[in-house]
Amino acid sequence: MHNRLSFNRIIATPSLNKLSYFMTSLTLAPLLNIAQRAMLSAGKKVFFLRNNVDSFSPIQKADPILALELSKIIEKEIINELAYSFPDHKINVASDSSGAYSSENNEHQWHIGISGIDNLIHSFPFYAVSIAYCFNGKTQLGIVYNPATEESYVAMRQEGATLNDKRIRVAKPNELLANSFISLNTNYCHTKNEDALALIPKLSKQVKDIRMLGSEALDLCLLAEGCVAAFIGHSLNYTQIAAAQLIATEAGAIFVDFNGADADQYTQNILACSPKQLKLFLKSLA
Question: pTM for this structure?
Fold first, then answer.
């Protein structure tokens, strides 16, 4: 059994401001190791569930309660690992909007979520487990893992982003939107977001094609990888996308609301793209 870590010892880096620490890859490395271990445990649970989804009836698969319960089962694997290693940290989970697990410490927070759980239920291999660590309100570490493809996206603040240890970057901007793929996430089956769906005919006339794959975390990772030029998301849950947002940001993306103001953890409708294409995409949403 691994030993419980004291985070105060890990980040005993001198600071001129006693209220904050200078987070580096060295101070974040122990957290990354534990987060990856938690991710592997969650991945094993995903594999088990994936191999047993046929045991659910079509009626059960259509019930949102099943998606919620499966998300909680997977998230519990991560909660157990993080709560043991960091008992004084706050743990936020995407499936539980009522509060957080473990400590009420707002200085050290984790955000964990399962993105694309409906895809998992229907054996569509586009779903991910995500873990983000935040210190004093700023995301410092993010991991998004797709167990179906064994793709692991990782980012640390000011250290760049990687896919399976290879550096990734947003695509070079096209001068014309007509040459661009974009990713659209409407959260339709949960929120019946008619405003989001209304964007489809408008955007489809301006871009090469629209992808709607059902996992906001992986959509953002595709942006970070350069597979799509932009991500447009509606009614987003910050805990669900915290890790992917850091990954895309470290890969060169910018995040704003539909009016062009900087996005924060309370922004639900988000446009993410290369800074050089921001004006073009904002114009397309107007």
Answer: 0.87
